Amino acid sequence: MVIAADMQMTAPAMASADRKIIVPPVYASNYIDSLLDICKSHEVRAVVSLNDLELPILAVNIAKFDAIGSKIIVAPSEAIDIAFDKKRTIEFATALGIETPLTFTCIDDAIQAIQSGSLHFPLVVKPRWGSASIGLEFPTNLVELELAFRLLSLRLGRTMLAEASQADFENAILIQEKIEGIEFGVDVLNDFNGCTRQVYVKEKLAMRAGETDKSVLRYHPEIENLGHKIGNELKHIGNLDCDFFEKEGRYYLLEMNPRFGGGYPFTHMSGGNYVAAILSFLRGEEFDFSNFQKRYNVVFSKCDNLIQVSG
After folding, report:
1. Fewest beta carbons less than 10 Å away: which of 200, 233, 246, 289?
2. Does residue 97 surpass a pLDDT of 90?
3. pTM
4. Percent of the chain topping pLDDT 90
5. Which domain CATH number covers 13?
């Protein structure tokens, strides 16, 4: 049985579950207790989150769920922090020898880099602790940069990212060079020991509202090797959703999300049934990855589906 939990009963994904349950907001004091009650009442064996803001909260409460026999499919706290904090993501990648866009957290430093010729427009302005493309801007000149930075500074405290940004609010906005090239979505599957077992590399053909809209699996051993390097070093659990750009034969890591992302369905349709593998891990069984048949060069596209959510 699949149980879906959300703040609103009208969330579209609820329609795909066997049972639908309302839970408090993620930062509510009774959020974890409500999840524990659900797990106890329904003898839930595994908990999977699709929300960036939930991950650090779930990670520090793993022992509570283990005590009632519910396994949270979540990365260790350190891995979540590295992925959620985009500045730490850059530091992590750099230590592995993986290239990243030139990045600043201070607008004065960014302007100085522009004036010296080491940073060029267009740029990317985004929250350091970001999710769902909230606050994403692409300034093309100095006036737009200053306006975008100031506007995000004013608005960030009113978004769902406000709580996460409190860790360093004065440096909670990133200014990055915009890499112009081919964008890839990479799904890195780790087992429960944090060992990388599969990497699927998909070329993004179209994006909508910050999510992949059209995609195709590519044979790309260079990026696949980078996925293995990241997964084995980060030691996350389950899926890691990574974004890469290829420009002039160089590969740039933009960000990582230690969860199933909006691009996972393309991996699934291309032969990477990560869900089946995770279910095997839960049963304590070794999964036969030879059953994965990678369907290269087959294009898949999302489409809107109108469903009834109440009444």
Report:
1. 289
2. yes
3. 0.94
4. 84
5. 3.40.50.20
Out of 128, 157, 177, pick the residue that ends a domain. 177
Rounded (5°) CA angle 59-63-65: 85
- Please give the Cα distance from 182 to 205 (Å, whole number): 9
Residue 178 to residues 64, 123, 227, Cα–Cα distance (Å): 42, 5, 22
Residue 25 lies in a domain: yes
* Confidence (pLDDT) at 161: 72
| 89's tokens | 């993501």
289 burial (CB, 10 Å; 0-12 / 13-18 / 19+) is: exposed
Last residue of some domain: 132, 158, 177? 177
- Per-residue pLDDT band for 254 (boundaries 50, 70, 90) equals very high
Provide the H-helix boundaries in 85-172: 86-95, 107-116, 142-155, 162-165
Quick check: is 258 in a domain?
Answer: yes
Partners of 127 in the β-ladder: 173
In the structure, what pLDDT confidence band is assigned to residue 307 with cuts at 50, 70 and 90? confident
Residue 10's domain spans which residues?
3-74
